Structures are given as structure tokens and as C-alpha cells.
Amino acid sequence: xxxxxxxxxxxxxxTPKRKEDARKRGQVAQSREVASVAILSACLVYFYFNTPGxxxxxxxxxxxxxxxxxxxxxxxxxxxxxxxxxxxKGFLLLFPLLLTxxxxxxxxxxIQVGLVFSAESLEPKLSKIDPLKGLQRLLSLKSVVELFKNxxxxxxxxxxxYVTVRGEAKGIFPLMDQSxxxxxxxxxxxxxxxIFTTCWVLIILxxxxxxxxxxxxxxxxxxxxxEIKDEHKHSEGDPIVKARIKRLQxxxxxxxxxxxxxxxxxxxxxxxxxxxxxxxxxxxMIAPVVVAKGAGFIAEKIxxxxxxxxxxxxxxxxxxxxxxxxxxINKVIPENLYRAVAEILAYVYGLKKDRGN
Length: 357
Hints:
elongated; 5 strands; 12 helices; alpha+beta; about 350 residues; five-stranded mixed beta sheet
């Protein structure tokens, strides 16, 4: 019983088939931190190279909005179109940023798991709303790790912001004598420095999280020895059934082979252990063909059928051994045996002629 329990322990690495089945169900090793840091980094790069253009577009949008506000009479009929137009202008302003976010998120996920399409993960399941299973998920190691990770991220971002602002404390007081544009520019530089430093730290955290997710994924797919045996049996077929099929195939092949013995021109024997039946038709064959061969019981059966059908049996130990080892059934003999086999066939044809056949 203890041995049976031990066999059921999931100690074996997952097979390629199990991984492929899990992938089809949407179960892959994926870190959300990789996607998050990819999006944050992409947005940082976008604003670094495109901040002047974004500010200019915002100014143009505000100028045109305030200019039109004094010229347009807002009524019940046109308020919807005015609001829709304003939303559309805002969307055009944000579209490059949204496109950057989408591309970064897609690339981060494709790099991790490739292209995966699975509708099974979207199917409604009662287990997803089961309170007991929900509590188990809440108290699982994965949930604890996620909680620790989120707390760590908040601490990291807060600490980086604190250190950065403290280092720039001397430059805050002179802002009182500067213009609004200069103040905004200073705030933008500080914010960029905080986000840039945060990105580097989060990249390290994302790499660690991906390694953990990979380990957790491999662990969840581990199999017991019995599961591996069952999978092999399912994919390759039951060994007992396969053995039976092979046995039936051998029997059928043997029967077909025995049915060819009466058509043979000669059976060459060892004489006790090996028998090889040859057939030669000058009009359709380029050389004699081995139509049957066997050793032991099969050899005796071939000789028995040959005697019953008046097929000459010739004893030639070297030739029988060579033909048995070198030539497969329904294959012509090699050229280097032509002369020796021709002499045997000539002898057989001579016997038939003497008998009047």
C-alpha cells in the first residue's frame, strides 16, 4: 500500500504532451509583472521622445476648446455632438499612447508564451464561484506570494520617490520665484527620474517573478509515474493490445507466405533448420524471388507444403544460409548469387524434364 501511494506522488517532470494539453487549456507560465514593466517602460520612452509634441497638442486642444466655447451656443440639440467632438479630439490625442500600451502588452505576452488562443479558460465554471475553493486560492502559496509582491512594489516605488524628492529638496524653494512653465518642467524632470529608477527596479522584480511563475508552472504540471504510464498507454496504445495486433499481423503474413510455397520452383534447405522457397518466371521477373523462408518449425512447414505440392527440395547448406540472412521475402536475390542459383534451377528443371513435367 505504501509503495502504491509512493507511485502516486507527482515527482516526474511533465511530458511534452501534458504541456501541450495545458497550453491548449490556456495554462502557461506567464508573469503579469513582465507585461506591467513593459508597458511602463514603453510609456516612459514615449513621453521621453514625444513630450514636446504631446504638450503642444494639449495646448492646441485647450485653445480651440476655449475659443469655440465663446462662439457656440449650447442647446439641447447640439450638446451631444459638442461632447462627442470633444471626446473624439481627446481620443486622437491619446491614441498614440494607447497604441504604445497595447503593442507593449502584446509583445510582453508573446515573448513569454507565444501566441496562445484558448476559449476554455473563458468558459463559465462553478468552481470559480465556489466559496471553499475561493478560500483555498486565497490562502494558497501563490496568493501569499502575490500579496508580498504587491507590498514590495508599493514599498519600492514609495522609497524611490522619497529618496528622489529628498535629493531634490534644495531645488523646491526657488520654484516660488519661477513661472508656471518652469515649475511644470521641474516636476516633469523629477517624475521622470522617479519612474526611470522605478523601471529598473521593477525589471529585476519582473525577471524574478517570471522565474517563480515558471517554477510554479512546472511544479503544477508534474506527473506521477502511473500518470506517465497511462499517458504512454493512451498515446502509443495498450502494450497487450499492440502485442496481440503484431501477433495477428505475423500470423497473416505467415499464412500469405505459406500460400506462395506451392508456386515456388524450388525449396533450398539447410537441411534441418532453414528452408528458402524460390520462384522464377522469365517473362515477368528479372531474377529469382524469395517467396517464403523460415527456420525451425516454419522451415519444416515449408518443406511439408513443398512435398505435398511436388515442389523440388534441394539441400544446399551455404546457399540456404546466405539466402535466409541476406534476402527478405518477395525480394529478388542479389547479383552475386545469380550463378549459384541458376545452377540449382537448371538442376531442378532437368529433374522435371526427366519426370516428364
